[in-house]
Amino acid sequence: MKKKLIISLFAIVIALTATVGMAFAKGTIKIVVNGKQIKTDVAPQMSNNRVMVPISFISKELGANVSWDQKNQTVSIKSSKSDVQEDVWNQNVDISPSGWSQVKNLIALYIAGFDTRDDELIKSISVEGFDMIPIGGMYPSIIDYEIVDAQQSKETFKVRVRVIFNEEKLFGEEWDIEISQGKIKSMTKSGIIEINDYTVFLGLSFQNK
């Protein structure tokens, strides 16, 4: 297993926004977010007249999530209130509101069945021979998920789902769920994301210890 890369990377901050202020007092750099002073595991530092702060702590206080994509060597910051969406397949899908509701509900049922190891539920919503069914044993708990994008072909509808797990530590996976004729045809894991902390909503956050 590759060495864990700590998400609390130092980001160069020249100006944060009106909501984030920094002050120097007796040589100590303070970080104030929305009027609240926060403490970090690594102290802010000055380097070449620039202030270096741990980005995950700032993001968490602003209600955003920080994740690390090992495959693409990318740190991603996503606000829980952001309207910015990821376009994975760069395709417009042609589906009715009721059709999308069925797709969304099918995915919700699969997530619930996977999380509770309800093999009968998953079998009822998947095609014969579908093998991504967790039967018995211990599995990490799913604490949240979101639909990222969708792709349409003549016979199938593929949906990218980002799933957040906790098993001693937080981590994320991206699933590509393929749907055909109202049932789940396949599920493949397209990526793994390292996560240091995750905000479900303001007031409920989880962090690796």
Could you characterize the architecture of this molecule?
The protein has 209 residues and is α+β, with helices and mostly antiparallel strands. Helix content is 16%, strand content 46%. The protein is built from three helices and 13 strands; from the N terminus they run E-E-E-E-E-E-H-E-E-H-H-E-E-E-E-E. The strands form three sheets. Strands 7, 8, 9, 10, 11, 12 and 13 form a seven-stranded antiparallel sheet that branches. Strands 1-6-5 form a three-stranded antiparallel sheet. Helix 2 runs antiparallel to helix 3. The radius of gyration is 20 Å and the shape is elongated.
List segments where confidence is low: pLDDT < 50 over at least 5 consecutive residues.
1-26
Distance between the termini: 19 Å
Instruction: Kindly state the number of beta strands.
Output: 13
Q: What structural class results from the helix and strand content?
A: alpha+beta
SSE run: EEEEEEHEEHHEEEEE
| Average residue pLDDT | 81
| Oligomer status | single chain
Total helical elements: 3
How much of the residues is beta strand, in percent?
Answer: over 45%
What's the shape? elongated
Secondary-structure blueprint:
Blueprint lengths: L9 E4 L6 E6 L2 E6 L2 E3 L6 E3 L2 E5 H7 L2 E6 L4 E6 L17 H20 L2 H7 L15 E12 L4 E11 L1 E12 L2 E19 L2 E4 L2
Antiparallel strand pairs: 1-6, 2-3, 3-4, 5-6, 7-8, 7-12, 9-10, 10-11, 11-12, 12-13
Helix pairs in contact: 2-3
